[in-house]
Design goal:
Layout: E1 47-49, E2 54-56, H1 57-66, H2 84-103, H3 105-111, H4 115-118, H5 124-127, H6 137-157, H7 159-180, H8 196-213, H9 218-233, H10 239-258, H11 264-297
Antiparallel strand pairs: 1-2
Helix pairs in contact: 2-3, 2-6, 6-7, 6-8, 7-8, 7-10, 7-11, 8-10, 10-11
Amino acid sequence: MTTPPPPSSAPGAGPEPGEVPVCPRHTDRVSYVRCQRCGRPACPECQVQAAVGVHCVDCVREASRNAPQARTVFGATLRDGRPVVTLTLIGLSVLSFVLQQTLGRAWTDALIFAPFLGETEPWRFLTAAFLHSPGFLHIGFNMFALWIIGPSLEQALGRWRFISLYVLAAIGGSLMVTLLASPATVEWGRGLVGASGAVFGLFGAILIVLRRLGRDARQIVVILGINAVLGFVVPGISWQAHLGGFLVGLVLGVAYAYAPRPRRGQVAVAATVGVAVLLVVLAALKYASVAAWWAAVG
């Protein structure tokens, strides 16, 4: 019985006598350089310099898939590069602001929130966060705050938790305005615009994150204190929206930052869904009480 010769594709195997080694990905290219992992020829385009020798791109890709993924302290995937979600939120807000200036009242009227509109057009609870008052001060402050806080929170918590926090805080801000407004006053019909509720949700969450990491949060506390005072002394600022967003941020921040390590994903999902359901229930109860009030006075 004879033993067949080893195939030329086996690691470390040389070419058959008279056979010219070619790159398996580019069969028209001769290559005498072999991958240190699989032993196959690799042309210059398919070579990746390793600590020792050369690896082919296929082996590098396979090693990347099998390598353990780096994660943050809070279990989020560690990502390099730009804060995609933060930049997207800023971009949408700026685009909406431009449309407000170019389309007149049409764009603002379609997205603005007021308590009396929320029951029949509930999307306004969120869309108002992408509108801003005329002039650059309002949008400038909110987008600056989002840019300062957003990237670090997005990296620490991960993209889906960050966007959930922002969206629910924005809704929470609009809801708090509704809960504290009376249908017997002008507050029930007053329009609300701005990302302040969402931004204050980020403030609330970063307070918890900094505390969880043992870092100094005094700067955030000072900023919150200043804005709390401004909300009562400067007309046109909705302290109710700030409060609603801030409370949502605190609750989700605690859930995201203090979840037990083995159950971080489950706790984060449960907390996000739970807060969303709570907001819906509170809104439903408020509008039911308002309907009963109208029935009584009507």
